Structures are given as structure tokens and as C-alpha cells.
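Aim 2, interim progress: modelling of the 2-aminohexanedioic acid-bound target.
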Amino acid sequence: MSKIKTDFGIDEALFALGIQNLNDGSSTGSNNFSSGETIESYSPVDGSLIAKVKTTSKNDYDKVIDVASEAFKTWRLKPAPQRGEIVRQFGNKLRELKEPLGKLVSYEMGKSYQEGLGEVQEMIDICDFAVGLSRQLHGLTMHSERPGHRMYEQYHSLGIIGIISAFNFPVAVWAWNTALAWICGDVCVWKPSEKTPLCGVACQNIAASVFKANNLPEGISSMINGNYKVGEMMTNDVRIPLVSATGSIRMGKIVAQAVAARLGKSLLELGGNNAIIVTPNADIKMTVIGAVFGAVGTAGQRCTSTRRLIIHESIYNKVKDALVAAYKQLRVGNPLDENNHVGPLIDTDAVANYNKALKKVVAEGGKILVPGGILDGKGYESGCYVKPAIAEADNNFEIVQHETFAPVLYLLKYSGEVENAIAIQNGVVQGLSSAIMTSNLREAEQFLSVVGSDCGIANVNIGTSGAEIGGAFGGEKETGGGRESGSDAWKIYMRRQTNTINYTTELPLAQGIKFDL
Ligand code: UN1
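Predicted structure of the complex, ligand included:
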């Protein structure tokens, strides 16, 4: 920890990341053709305008796709381990720039500096993973039913991968996609969230510097900027075989339909409504740490944030009291000050949604335990700082069924066996992450069994957030079904080809069909 550099300002960080202002006050990144209107990036930390970024017009977009298509022609011919070497260099650049990039993430998005550094670490980790994987893009060999025949499958590069990412992980989710796509021989076009465009510019600059140093075309990594309309250019574009999109369920449904209409592939990582089940066999101390970090980390703006605690009635009051006491210790404030646990929400719209959720839970019959509230006064001028809140609720409340991207935690009670808690846990439309706190083997295994959690991620004795990159990341139901990051998630970035080779002088047909001439 002592090695972490904190004593530098945001200007210094922007400079280190190669972000410079143009004459018109806008910023640009490498290989960026954007010439449209500007979007302004305000920091939720102090409300200042950090910089402006130009948006991408249709003409600019077509230039980007031309450059990406050209780059694909050469990049796919480079042997995968050599592509891995480029990703290794990219990972090393991230190591060098971890502190300025972590600081920009914290300042532009509002998460704590520690979490900003953690996000860059996640990028470094996926690069390391991808480097190893670049020598392991294995296909299977099968035994043919015909004599003198051999069958195998191989994976080829897919093409241009469109990436749409959300503000809450403004750099890591892009890296999960690109690091894998690059070793697979694909090129990437990225639309970062219009709420965090500078994080996009910074990453694009880092990637471009590595490609340049290796005499590779910059089109291996391109960026487009703007709102959903810019995203639509990709979802409707037959030149993009795969669109990987992270964001709301609403957005995901639109993307999925547009991509499916042209029979493209989509990889969706959408909303969660993640719960921790707390059984009578839970360690309360561990539960409190896991639940509090899960609920207030990133100010409750992770897809994996803990939204619901499903607590057995026999320990309900004990857990409730411990949580209320823990929430009293939380310090909300400037996320660059490491004494604070919770930073601001992304913008004042998010604050309005937080407020609405608290009003709604009361209107539906819930009881507020930790009242929350919007902070004002010195240090809170951006209007984006809120206090984490806890409410007692029922799983059937409409607001509990809904993902609110804010630090609002709902306490739900269950009685009887763990099956009842699992039914509550599964009783939502989302299916991203879930956890159980128990030292009882039967409860834990039941939770992990086929009749257990229906989520893409199911943890025992840890919280719902903070997944490692080595596992496949994503969820079921309205979370969208996609898997990113570790395990065999790389396969979606490639096209699979089955090959049957006949090395005889006969031509026998499969299934024993006779066809003599
Ligand atoms: C997200 O919120 O979209 O598991 C990603 C986690 C992080 C990634 C979250 N590693 O909380």
C-alpha cells in the first residue's frame, strides 16, 4: 500500500494519460475521427467540468469501421501468441499508469480511489489471463465414423467486435472484452458511456501507444463517442458480428433485438438484483463486512451490488442491529480522500432515482431503518452525495423487484428451511449474482445445487460483488445470459469451424448412405 502514489492532482493524471485539450476546448484521443457535437464530462466529485469530448457522426463512424476492417486483415494473420505479446505490453503500460488511470476513474466516475486502482488491477489481471490464453485457443479432435478420416474443430478470428460499456466500470469492462478479443485476432470498436468519456480517451491512448510502438495499425482499437444513437450504428451494422453490451435491462433488450434482427451475436451483461442469504449458521461478523461492502461499495452502482439481504427470522434482529451500527461508521465524501468509504453517485439523475426508491419503499409499506438522505454543504457541492440507506421490505414490493443503482439495501425475513430463502432469492427477474453466508455444508450445497440459486454467480461466505476475472462473469434471466472475462468466455469472440479430412482414395458417405455412380 505504501507504494501507491496519491500526492498528485487530476491535471497531472490527465497529462500522464495523454489527454490534451484542442483549441475548441474539446479533448481527443488517438485514432479518433469524431467531429460531431461535444459532450461535457463533469466530475460528480466536485461538479467541475473536466473536459469536453467530440461525438461521432455517421460519417466519422464509417471511417472508424473502414480503419478497423483494414486493421483486421493484418491482425488476424499474426499468430495468436504474438498477439498475446502485444497484450502483455498493454498490461505493462497499465501497470505503469495504474495510479493516474485509477485517479481519473475515481474523479470522473466517483468511486473511491482504492476502487479506481482495483478497477485498473482488474484490467491488468485480464491482460495476464489473455496472454496465457493466447497459447490455449484449443479446439477438440473427434474420431470420425468413417475409416481414414479425421475430424477436428478450430477457432478463427471473428472480425470487428463492438463494445458498449457502462459508466460504473468505465475501464475494466472494456478491458475484459478487448484483451480477449485481441488475442483472438479481432479488432475492437468501443463506445464508452457518455458519462465517462475521458476514461475512454485515456484507454484508447494507452492502447494506441502500444500498437504504434509495435508498428501495428491503430485500427485494432477504435473509439466512438456519444449516446445510444451512436451505439445503434453498431447494433444495426452487419460489419460487426458481435456486440458486447453492458448496461440496463432496458438497453439490453433494444440491443439484443437489433442485433438478432440481422442475425448477429450479442453478449449481454445487464442488471442484477443480488441477494445474500443469511442463515442461522452464518458468521455475523463476516456477514456484516460482506453485506456492507456489497451494498455501499461504488455507492451501490455495481451490477453486482448487494440489494437484498434475506435473513433467517431467528437471527434477524441481531443482523439488523449489527448492520445499523456498521452504517453509522460509514464516511461519505470525496472519493479521492482515502478516509471516506463512499463517494458520490454518478449524477443528479441518479440522486433523484435514489430518492424515488426510498419514497417508494415507504409507500409500499416498508420501514426505513437507516434513513439516508442527500448531503449538502462544503464538499458536497456537486449535489451527487447521498447517505447509504437500509429499509425493511418485502420481496414482492415493486421497488424491491427493481434494480436501483444507489446504496439502498432491503432487509427481507425468511423462516423455516434454506429452500424458503432460495425461493425469495430467485424470485426476481434478474439473475446476476448471489451469495449465502453459512458454515453448514448442507445449506451451502443446497444453495449451489440445481434447485439452488438461479444466478450466473453463486458464492458461499463472500459477498455478491468483487468477482475475480478468472471466472466467467455474467448472469441468467433478464441479466442477459452473456459471459465475459475468464473461463471459456473467449469462445464467443471467435468463429468455430468443424473440419473433416479424408486421407483415403475412397469417398464413403456419413450415416452409411450408399451413392454409387
Ligand atoms: C459491473 O458492475 O458491471 O464483480 C462489473 C465485480 C466487479 C465487476 C463488476 N469485478 O463487482
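Residues 177 and 484 are 7 Å apart (CA to CA). The domain at 274-468 is CATH 3.40.309.10 (Aldehyde Dehydrogenase; Chain A, domain 2).
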